[in-house]
Amino acid sequence: MNKYIGFKCSLCGEEYQPGQVEYSCPVDGGNLDVILDLDRIRKEFSPDTVISTQDQSLWRYLPLLPVDDPGGIATPLRAAGMTPVFSLDRLARHIGINRLWLKDESRNPTASFKDRASAVVVARARQEDAKIVVTASTGNAGAALAGMAAAVGQEAVIFAPRTAPAAKVAQLLVFGAKVILVDGNYDQAFDLSTQAAEEFGWYCRNTGYNPFTAEGKKTAAYEIWEWMSTSLHPQSNSELLNIFVSVGDGNIISGIHKGFKDLLALGWLEHMPRLFGVQAQGSAAIANAFFAGDERIIPVSAQTLADSISVDLPRDGVRAVRAARQTGGQYILVSDQEILDSIPVLGASGIFAEPAGATAYAGLVKALQQGLIQPHEPVLVLNTGSGLKDVRAAMQAVPEALVIEPTLQALKRVLQ
């Protein structure tokens, strides 16, 4: 029996039964929200029964996911999620706040947040007996799909911009996906992938297009909820947690919002955290809509070194605007230089973040400067991916390594 009862368009509100639609609303093209069978979940499960499982992956929340158990207990598909939350006390003192944590998504099997969506989409594809799963990606989503698909023998086709970082392209190829580099940007790769899916009958994973991507990404909210109940200081229970998330196409922040909304609707969450979306100044379509006070997403010509969040036309922009607005959060814009500066700052705490991950921390610093949060408020920053994904950007953020002759005298000279 399905744990979901249908879909609801995020724009017009039209509802559909399972099987009536697959990707987006046929009336206006709006993103679809999966409607969980909340009554059934309440009757059959409780917070205790969900979190008491021994499964240390996102699949511990299977009762709240609209897919079946994917099987394969010992595969990387079963290792996505349950990423650690680190307390960054020294960094908190440095920037003048009391409590700062970082949830490190680089610990996922392919080293990015995108494993969550890909794991759930691959599970869905197997239910649908899909022969091939396709996606467009600047690298991380494609690597996640390629890795999760390889874990269970699922064929995958990845369209990526020709300019995607070499390390990300290497992951796609190593995992055995069919990789097609497009001589264009992410948006053009996205459009081509959806056309190919329709033409060849492939199952399309595309972010902000396939409604099950948000269902995978919402699992981060479930993990934060579980962490909040056990790890926040008791005096913080009545305070709102401030969560900082980098935003490109909008699907991560909207997925996290969806997860918290699920928990509120079930009565398992008392207070909705505040969600802060952080965009690069050169890729600010969603932030622009937020600042304008409406939901019209006007495309931009994206230019930022943070390739993971470089998007002309965000595919989940409306829900991303609502994620901040409906939780009392904000959008924040940061420069590429502020992003680069944040990479070694996080590195000094033992976190190697790719530019998109460092963007969230850069947004926190700016939020403090602008008075959007106060020093006593608890903060969680989301690092969405490993710095090894984009070594070229990392090298721009730090001084060059010293080169010396292999003598003690030469070493003494540089140490002085």
Structural features, described:
The chain is of the alpha/beta class. The protein has a domain at 76-110 and 214-396: Rossmann fold, CATH 3.40.50.1100. Helix content is 39%, strand content 15%. The chain has a six-stranded mixed β-sheet with strand order 4-5-13-10-11-12, with helices on both faces. The radius of gyration is 21 Å and the shape is globular. The N and C termini lie far apart (71 Å).
List the helices and strands and how they pair.
Elements lengths: L3 E6 L5 E2 L15 E5 L1 H7 L2 H5 L33 E3 L1 H7 L4 E5 L10 H13 L4 E5 L3 H13 L2 E7 L4 H9 L3 E5 L3 H15 L2 E2 L6 H7 L1 H13 L10 E5 L4 H16 L7 E7 L4 H8 L24 H9 L5 E4 L1 H12 L7 H15 L9 E5 L7 H6 L11 H8 L1
Parallel strand pairs: 5-13, 6-7, 6-9, 7-8, 10-11, 10-13, 11-12
Antiparallel strand pairs: 1-2, 1-3, 4-5
